[in-house]
Design brief:
The complex is a heterodimer. By secondary structure, chain A is α/β, with parallel strands linked by helices. Chain A is 40% helix and 17% strand. Chain A has helices at 2-18, 48-67, 93-106, 118-122, 124-130, 166-179, 192-208, 228-236, 248-261, 272-275, 277-284, 311-322, 331-349, 355-363, and strands spanning 35-41, 71-73, 78-80, 82-88, 111-113, 135-137, 153-155, 183-189, 213-220, 241-245, 268-270, 292-295, 370-371, 374-375, 391-396, 402-408. Mean pLDDT of chain A is 90; it is low at 13-32. By secondary structure, chain B is mainly alpha-helical. Chain B has a single domain (2-109, 137-278), classed as ABC transporter involved in vitamin B12 uptake, BtuC, CATH 1.10.3470. A two-stranded antiparallel sheet of chain B has the order 1-2. The chains are: A alpha/beta, B mainly alpha. At the A-B interface, helix 1, helix 2, strand 9, helix 8 and helix 9 of A face helix 1, helix 4, strand 2, helix 5 and helix 8 of B.
């Protein structure tokens, strides 16, 4: 009986952990006269909230272009319609690996686009490289993806994680020290996206030589849903500033637990209050976001563009197309649309559809293309070093709302930081 | 920090006792592992979310509503499905497959209706302000959730050990055929236990936004795994074992978060494997189906 029970337990764990129901393939390989784009999205699981907006943003661009007859492709000197082949990886890296292979070997897509986020991009990097396919990395920002010996990846719509915290770290080292900040606590989810940012925070602060000391520096699993004990442990370390780095689910849990526990930190930074503000407002309420420091993303700042829709135009197009969907407008929706814009410009200047020619075309846009996501700029490894976001603080606004105040760098600042938070 | 972790673990563990209790009750009576248990819990969570955001229904009232709602749905569902599963040659295996499929369907439907993003209810909707407990302060929502969980556990205990229906349920737990031979309407008893199991999952779901931070349609699978680990640790089929398993899980998780936070979520699997290897019938188990 016990052996049978053990067998059932193992079967359950294998069933629950190892397999997911997959949607049937969306279609055959691209027919002549079409440019086939292959991508993955996560309709469920922990990465759905960052994947679906990117996917919807990309789809919006594709639908717009196809309504205009397609995109201009230089080697053929004409507009060619786009065909999107998209599979649902359900936030599973194992499923994603299989589907990336399917897009390359079975569907033979012309352009391979990664799912959103570093976790679901990480499995695509070696697969694309092995097949000599250029990976259009939308928002997978883990610094380890980008190496000099791998020409088959380019980061399109987010800056590489290693530079995200630059302004936040500079603020702590300069303005923060002037405000009296000395003791810093950091808790981060252990994945490529936030792990890299944690390393970057340490590096920037160490290199600054500022009198800042990490009094708490711990990683937690990415699927952590309870932070109450961790918040108590951080409080026990008596920090002047707290940095919490996680995905949207982590930030929601952290801010919820912080609010419920009655603990207040004088200076608190989190990523997603800026990146997915609408989602966070719904999940934790505006009070929990008051005085939180965060990245001020492209979904909030209207950058001057030289190609594609402006932020206001994109926002209007988004709400017209997705008014009744459950996918929120935000930073990630801008990222998906930005991917489309970069591909559109690259196809207009590329010499051929060869993967390295496409890479060369994308690199030719570096430092010149300005979209609603900011300045598109690449380093030699394909990592995005433009589109960097300033540091902002969320402050209460009238009628129970909130607004962003950019506090660093000073050249773009719109106000002074409130420290300590009331 | 250790005292805080232990107390927080106790509160968290009481909640996970409630999460596992319904699953264990169903397994104890029917020898069926309801792999959709976590998805039923998720439905409870989204029911509370919808009631709160649409009609401002307080979560405590939602929990009270969940009891008849989920139990009422569970009894007819039992008669529709379970007797057919039990008549098959291998009901355990068939039930695994059936409920796995059901889990996927529930998740997909919930994603269509509610979207894929995280949703939550403000903690103040359940209880206001932090609460002092043995010189430590905890979120009031945690304390309330733990208290409600404790009440639910007590209710199940009284039902099983102090009511005639409970005696009959335990008789069915011990031996189905013998209970039928002695004149017990085993299907009626089992249908009520199945409904109670779903009701417990529904109530646990109402409390989930407060204990887990947020809920998503995809939370079911992970919740089922954790609930399964809790009941195997305590002892399959033993409600009191579930209490022990839940508290062991909660306390261990919080202590791990304090001292080895990066490894904290490995814990349920380590505990599960360790207990299965050292004591396969669980901490309180003598025989698998002893009530």
């Amino acid at each position: 009986m016990h052996k049978r029970l053990l067998g059932i337990v193992l079967l359950i764990l294998m069933t629950l952990g190892g397999s997911r129901v997959m949607l049937p393939p969306a279609g055959a390989a691209g027919a002549p006269g079409e440019i086939t784009l292959g991508t993955l999205y996560a309709s469920s699981g922990p990465f759905a909230s960052i994947s679906m907006p990117v996917y919807y943003g990309l789809r919006l661009w594709i639908d717009q272009k196809n309504a205009e007859g397609g995109v201009f492709v230089k080697p053929f000197h004409k507009k060619i319609p786009l065909k999107l082949i998209a599979y649902d990886d359900q936030s599973s890296t194992a499923t994603a690996a299989t589907l990336y292979n399917q897009l390359i070997t079975q569907d033979k897509v012309d352009i391979l686009i990664a799912d959103s986020g570093s976790v679901l991009t990480s499995v695509a990097v070696p697969i694309a490289r092995d097949h000599k396919m250029l990976l259009i990395d939308q928002t997978g920002t883990g610094a380890a993806f980008f190496t000099k010996d791998n020409p088959y990846i380019v980061l399109i719509a987010d800056p590489v994680s290693s530079i995200w915290p630059r302004y936040a770290a500079e603020f702590l080292a300069k303005d923060g020290v002037a405000l009296g900040i000395r003791r810093v606590a950091m808790v981060y989810a252990t994945n490529d996206f936030t792990g890299t940012q944690a390393s970057a925070f340490r590096k920037f602060i160490k290199e600054s030589g500022a009198p800042l000391q990490f009094v708490y520096d711990e990683g937690v699993p990415t699927n952590t849903s309870s932070y109450t004990v961790i918040i108590n442990n951080i409080r026990a370390a008596n920090p002047d500033a707290v940095i919490e780095l996680g995905y949207a689910g982590n930030d929601i849990s952290f801010l919820r637990n912080l609010q419920d526990s009655g603990v207040k930190f004088k200076w608190l930074f989190a990523i997603y209050p800026g990146l997915e503000t609408e989602l966070l407002k719904k999940a934790v309420g505006t009070k929990a976001l008051d005085y939180v420091y965060t990245y001020v993303p492209s979904s909030v700042i209207s950058y001057r563009t030289n190609f594609g829709m402006s932020l206001a135009q994109f926002r209007a197009a988004w709400y017209e197309k997705y008014a009744h969907s459950n996918v929120e407008f935000g930073f990630n929706s801008v990222a998906g649309y930005t991917t489309g814009l970069v591909l559109e410009r690259a196809l207009a200047v590329t010499q051929s559809l060869d993967q390295l020619a496409l890479r060369k075309a994308i690199f030719s846009l570096s430092g010149k293309l300005r979209t609603l996501d900011g300045l598109f700029q690449l380093d030699p490894t394909g990592a995005q070093i433009g589109e960097i976001t300033p540091l902002g603080q969320i402050v209460p606004a009238s009628a129970g709302g909130i607004r962003f105040v950019i506090v660093y760098p000073h050249s773009v600042a719109t106000g002074k930081p409130v420290y300590p938070a009331p | 920090m250790l005292a805080y972790a232990l107390l927080a673990g106790l509160l968290f563990g009481l909640y996970f006792t409630l999460v596992g209790l319904g699953l264990n009750l169903v397994f104890g009576v029917l020898r069926i592992v309801n792999l959709a248990h976590g998805d039923i819990l998720m439905l409870g969570a989204f029911t509370a979310y919808w009631l709160f955001t649409t009609f401002r229904v307080p979560p405590l009232l939602s929990a009270a509503l969940a009891l008849p709602l989920f139990a009422g749905a569970g009894v007819p569902f039992y008669y529709l499905v379970v007797p057919r599963l039990l008549r098959s040659r291998d009901p355990e295996m068939l039930s695994l497959i059936f409920f796995f499929g059901l889990s996927q369907i529930i998740e997909a439907l919930a994603a269509i209706v509610f979207g894929t993003s995280e949703r939550s209810i403000p903690g103040s909707a359940l209880a206001r302000g932090p609460v002092a407990l043995l010189h430590q302060t905890f979120p009031a929502a945690w304390v309330t959730s733990a208290a409600l969980s404790g009440l639910a556990v007590l209710g199940v205990y009284l039902y099983l050990y102090r009511t005639r229906l409970g005696y009959l349920t335990r008789a069915v737990m011990v031996h189905w055929e013998e209970s039928v031979a002695s004149g017990i309407d085993a299907h009626r008893v089992s249908a009520i236990a199945f409904g109670a199991g779903l009701a417990l999952a529904g109530i646990a779901g109402v409390l989930a936004p407060f204990m887990l931070g947020s809920v998503t349609p995809a939370m079911g699978v992970d919740t089922t795994i954790t609930a399964f680990a809790v009941i195997v640790m305590g002892s399959l089929g033993s409600p009191l074992g579930t209490v022990l398993g839940g508290i062991l899980y909660g306390v261990s998780l919080m202590v791990m978060q304090t001292y080895f936070s990066s490894w904290a979520n490995l814990l349920p699997y380590l505990l599960l494997i360790g207990i299965l290897l050292l004591r396969p019938s669980g901490l309180l188990g003598r025989q698998i189906r002893r009530a």
